[in-house]
Design a protein that fits this description.
Layout: H1 2-87
């Protein structure tokens, strides 16, 4: 009977130890998940900023291209006027 009680006591100790390990691992997993979610949010914010900067840059390029085309037209018109003036 004493052997049974010792085995039962030993199994209870093992069970308590395993429960403690389970709680520790559960806490570690929760901490890891929280860390991953925080990192994911940080990266999503960075991606959002980069996409906005890309859109802003694309709009600036469009304005610069239009301005360049306008300057080209103006320069062409002025050159034509100068040519006309020299032909007279």
């Amino acid at each position: 009977m004493e052997a049974k009680d010792e085995i039962i006591a030993e199994l209870r100790d093992v069970s308590r130890d395993m429960q403690g390990q389970l709680h520790t691992k559960t806490d570690e997993i929760k901490t890891l998940i929280d860390s991953m979610e925080s990192y994911k949010k940080h990266k999503e914010i960075e991606v959002y900023k980069v996409k906005n900067k890309q859109k802003e840059t694309a709009m600036e390029l469009t304005v610069l291209i239009k301005e360049h085309e306008k300057q080209k037209r103006d320069a062409g018109e002025k050159l034509k006027l100068l040519n006309d003036m020299f032909k007279q």
